[in-house]
Amino acid sequence: MERKRKAAVKPKRSAPNPxxxxxxxxxxxxxxxxxxxxxxxxxxxxxxxxxxxxxYRNPYQLLVATILSAQCxxxxxxxxxxxxxxxxxxxxxxxxxxxxxxxxxxKSTGFFRNKTKSLLGMANGLVERHKGKVPAAMHALVELPGxxxxxxxxVLGNAFGKNEGVVVDTHVTRLSQRLGLTAHSDAIxxxxxxxxxxxxxxxxxxxxxxxxxxRAVCKAPTPRCEACVLNDICPSSRV
Length: 239
What we know:
The protein is mainly α. It is built from twelve helices and no strands. The longest helix is centred in the middle third of the chain and has 19 residues, at 112-130. The protein is elongated, with a radius of gyration of 21 Å. It starts with 17 loop residues before the first helix and ends in a 23-residue tail after the last helix.
C-alpha cells in the first residue's frame, strides 16, 4: 500500500507585531527621517567597527574583490584575492591574463566564467580609457564592463571616501523593508528611498551597519527580535 506523502511544510514568515505595525502605519516623512537617525545612532553603538569586509589595499583591488563578491561570501573572496593580486598586481597585468588561468584562480567564488569576462573587460577598460587607474567618478566606473552602480558605490565610498549613493545588497534590502524605510524590492528604488532618509555623510557606512546587523541579528528568514537594539522602533518587531 502506497504511503501518502506529507505535504511540505513551508517556513512561516515572521509576522510584524500588530502594535508596532500600527504605530508606524501613518508615519510622516519627517518622523521616518527622525527614526532613521535613531536607527543609525543605535547601530553605530552596536557595531562601532563597521566597515567593508573585503580586504584591499587600493581602488583596483577593491574593484576586483567587489566583482568577485557577487553571489559569494566576502570571506571566500578574501581567501582568493591574495594569490590573484600576486599574479595580477596591476590592471595591465590582468588585462593580459589568459582567461583559463584567471578562471582557475577565481573558480571557488562561483560563476567564474562570467566573472572572468567581467574582470578582463574591466581591466582592459581601465588600461584603454583611464591609463590603468580606477576613476573616482560614478559615470566613468559604470561605463566599465562588469561594473554596475552597486559596485561603483562600493569603490567610491570605501576607496575614495565619496558618498555618491548607498550600496544595496540582500542584507540592506531585507533590513530596509523590515524597518519600514522602503516599500520597494528594486535595488535602485530602495537606494533612492535610503538617500532621502539617511544623511549624505552616512551613505557609505549605513550599508556596513545594516550588513553587520543583518548577519548578527536581523537574519533571514527569522530575525532575532528579542536581541535587537531596534525592536522598539521597528514596525516588523515580534516583541
